[in-house]
Amino acid sequence: MSERYNICLDVGGTKVLGAIFNENREIVYRLKKRSKSKGGEAANVEEVIAGVVEEMLDGFGISLEQVNAIASCAPGVVDQETGVVLFTPNLPWRNYDLRAAMEKRFGVPFYAGNDVNLGVLGEYHFGAGRGYRNIVGLFVGTGVGGGLILNGSLYTGHQFKGGELGHMILDPGGPLCNCGQSGCLEAYASKQGMSAYVRQQAARGRESLLTEHVQEGVFRSKHLKKALAADDAVAMEAVDRACHYLAVAAGSLINIFSPDLVLFGGGIIESMGDRFLGKILAELDAYCMPAIRSSVEVKNAALGDDSVLYGDLALIEGL
Amino acid sequence: MSERYNICLDVGGTKVLGAIFNENREIVYRLKKRSKSKGGEAANVEEVIAGVVEEMLDGFGISLEQVNAIASCAPGVVDQETGVVLFTPNLPWRNYDLRAAMEKRFGVPFYAGNDVNLGVLGEYHFGAGRGYRNIVGLFVGTGVGGGLILNGSLYTGHQFKGGELGHMILDPGGPLCNCGQSGCLEAYASKQGMSAYVRQQAARGRESLLTEHVQEGVFRSKHLKKALAADDAVAMEAVDRACHYLAVAAGSLINIFSPDLVLFGGGIIESMGDRFLGKILAELDAYCMPAIRSSVEVKNAALGDDSVLYGDLALIEGL
């Protein structure tokens, strides 16, 4: 009997990552594609996902008969049990039955979950979270996402809507967040929040290497890295402010959960995690109780861009 | 064979409540005592607890042979599995083996847990929390305590230190809290926080009916109630401020947990819960995400002073 494989996908607003895992949980094939789909309509994203799956089958040279299961994240609220995407803030998906669509198309079991939830789940089973029981995961990228492993299992809350750690309010009089609240962690610590800070300073006449990159949206991690390397004052302030609020949020979350691990991940951390972690750790003790802090480890994710792919695998294997 | 009973205790810094439950989970006898114990040393509080147990046995006219088990809370970090009180912020208990002391004394199984954890557990099994699966409990009294029911079980975190919801930081530049942090929920919303506000206003020359009651510590709920009835401006401000921050905290907790219930309890809520709940609900929607808020109920505890006693009972019964 020929070997069987699992196909795992990480679907974001702008890109799709794909990996084929063999039975030893090794990645034997990879693909990365931009998910340019007019307006992000469900059918179009479905086409992109399907295209990636087919391209991977071709590229690696296996047939669907050799595929055990396919899994993917979606950037939003996903019912892990039914595979229905309930809501995505940045895509027009509402109650979209991704599982039904994919199983109809490929005739293979399909699983789906929230992106950051799966990222934390991947780190828990295969990365920096191995051996811990209660993990608070903060993933810093375009937004700030959260994932919770509690008592050894992914916590999803009522209707799979739990874990919105990026929308903890750290100052009710703070800057407006995309979600409509004010002073959310995401409004300070995400690429969106940091970009807004750069725009605000530019409006005050303060120049920065990042200014040109935030005119129409958010800077990319590589631009931030470059600005920091050039000792760009506004960029350094934006990072200090982000890390300050990440420390405040992590402190509160430590008091709330008494976790054994606080895990930082996501694109920004992947790109300059040590710089962020150092600043966060320098402030963290002020914002949580010493008796609880003493039993918490704080570290960066280990699987980088692959954490969601490994989370998909954990979902398929029912871990 | 004669009927058997459970003895349940609520031990606070200043008082001990006791109840005898019959096999139908009905309270058949009650006792309330001040826990005046010089300095609160472990041995003295132990004497108070033991005294209450003995007085209840006498008063109700049963012998220890008829007692199935005894349970008590302690105001601090308690290892529910071993019955050891690890730490109490307002009493000098450190790694105090309450179970061993009590079982040696009475020869009956003894259980212990954190006070607010047991209060929420009691409400979950016997009070306002029945039928819910994920509950965030905020108990407002001298401090602000928290308790979490997640996926149908009490969540205690690593080393039983989880659930310190009163020490979420709502404004890192806010007033100093007893815990050493700044801007904790407790620093605004507890009797301590509200009393500090009254003292601060008195120092600015603003009189209040509460001023005389906060000279050496905190006002009592009945004093606050009286001041509010007299439309005392400073008292009303203190309450508005407390409710504002309770709404901010509850909003963040809704985003974090997507619970199906947020439950308010504790002495202040017991005394004037409708007034507080009304103000909290009027502000809450601004501080959480509509898609999550829509599936959360928010209400006050139902068991009043008895919630911890029922939590003891749940602990004994292994619920």
Topology:
2 copies of one chain form a homodimer.
Chain A (H helix, E strand, L loop, with lengths): L4 E7 L3 E7 L5 E8 L7 H19 L6 E8 L2 E3 L4 E4 L6 E4 H9 L3 E5 H12 L8 E6 L3 E7 L2 E2 L30 H5 L1 H13 L17 H9 L3 H25 L3 E5 L1 H18 L5 H4 L3 E4 L6 H10 L3
Parallel strand pairs in A: 1-4, 4-8, 9-12, 12-13
Antiparallel strand pairs in A: 1-2, 2-3, 5-6, 6-7, 9-10, 10-11
How does this structure look, described?
The structure is a homodimer of 319-residue chains. Chain A is an alpha/beta fold. Chain A is built from ten helices and 13 strands. Chain A has helices at 42-60, 98-106, 115-126, 185-189, 191-203, 221-229, 233-257, 267-284, 290-293, 307-316; strands spanning 5-11, 15-21, 27-34, 67-74, 77-79, 84-87, 94-97, 110-114, 135-140, 144-150, 153-154, 261-265, 297-300. Chain A has a five-stranded mixed β-sheet with strand order 3-2-1-4-8, sandwiched between helices. Chain A has a five-stranded mixed β-sheet with strand order 11-10-9-12-13, with helices on both faces. The first copy, chain A, has a three-stranded antiparallel β-sheet with strand order 5-6-7. In chain A, α3 packs across α10. The two termini of chain A are 25 Å apart. The mean pLDDT of chain A is 93. At the A-B interface, α7 and α9 of A face α7 and α9 of B.
